[in-house]
Amino acid sequence: METREILEQVRSGEMSVNDAESFFRRQPFEELGYARLDTHRKVRSGFAEVVFCSGKADEHLLRIYERIYEMEGEVLGTRAAKEQAHLIQERFGEAEYDPLSRILKIEKKGKKRIGKIAVCTAGTADIPVAEEAAQTAEFFGNEVERIYDVGVSGLHRLLSRVEAIQGANCVVAAAGMEGALASVIGGLVDKPVIAVPTSVGYGASMNGLSALLTMINSCANGIAVVNIDNGYGAGYMAAQINRLAVRGAE
C-alpha cells in the first residue's frame, strides 16, 4: 500500500489514525529467516519488491509470493521455471505464467496505464528478453508498444515504424549479434534509449558480450546499457523514465 493511499483512507475515514500510525511504525523489512522482504520499497521507490524466482526453493518461493500478495494484492516474478509456475498457480488460481519471458505474475485487474514506452527488437530471437522488459513495464502501470524484428540488416523495417518510436517517452532496444540497433535508434529519437544486449548470435558473439561492447561504445547520444539479457532491468528503468515524463507533462 502506498503512503498516499493510506493518507487518503485516513481522510475518508476508511482507516483509523491508530492503524495508519501502526503501518508507518513497522520495520522497513519483514524477517522470514531465509529472506528479508523489503516491505517499504514501494514507499521509497513507488514500486514493490519483485521476486527473482530462479534458484529459489519451492517452500521459500511460495511463502514469499504469499506475503507480498498479502501486502500488495499482486506479485511480479521473473525468471520462473514451468515447475515453479505450477507451484504458484496451484496456490493462486489467478497467477499468470508466460513461458516466453518467464514472467510469473499475479496482477490487479483494470490497471490504468500511462504514457508510452516503445520496446523494439532486432530479431525474433530477441523477443523473450524484450517481453520480459515489456511485461515488467506494463505490470508497473505503463503503456507499451511492441515493435519487433526491425534489425539493421533490413533498415527499411525500422524506418517504417520510426513515427511510433519517436512518439514514445523512452525506447527499449533489445539486440544480439553485433547489437547495432540501439545506436541506430539513438540517432533517430530525442528520448532516452535503454539498450539490452541479448545472448543471441554465433560463436564470436560470445553469448552477448559482443553486443554489450557495441552498445557501451555507441557513438549515438542518450543511450544507457543494462546487462546481457536483463529485460527486467530495462523494463524497470523505462517505467521510471516514463513516469517522470508523464509527471512533467501534467
Can you walk me through this structure?
This protein has helices at residues 3-12, 17-25, 41-45, 58-72, 82-91, 127-139, 155-159, 162-166, 181-186, 209-216, 231-249; strands at 30-31, 36-37, 51-52, 75-78, 96-98, 103-106, 114-121, 142-147, 170-175, 193-197, 223-225. By secondary structure, the chain is α/β, with parallel strands linked by helices. The chain has a 5-stranded parallel β-sheet with strand order 8-7-9-10-11. It is globular, with a radius of gyration of 20 Å. 41% of the residues are buried. The model has no long low-confidence stretch (mean pLDDT 91).
Main features:
5-stranded parallel beta sheet, 250 residues, alpha/beta, 4-stranded mixed beta sheet
DSSP E strands, number: 11
Structural class: alpha/beta
Helix content: 40-55%
Instruction: Tell me what portion of residues adopts beta-strand conformation.
Output: 15-25%
The total count of helices amounts to: 11
Placed side by side, the strands forming the largest sheet appear as 8-7-9-10-11
In whole angstroms, the N-to-C terminal distance is 24 Å
Poorly predicted regions are none
Q: Rounded to an integer, what's the Rg over CA atoms?
A: 20 Å
Average of pLDDT: 91
Shape: globular
Largest sheet: number of strands, sense, barrel closure: 5 strands, parallel
SSE string, helix = H, strand = E? HHEEHEHEHEEEHEHHEHEHEH
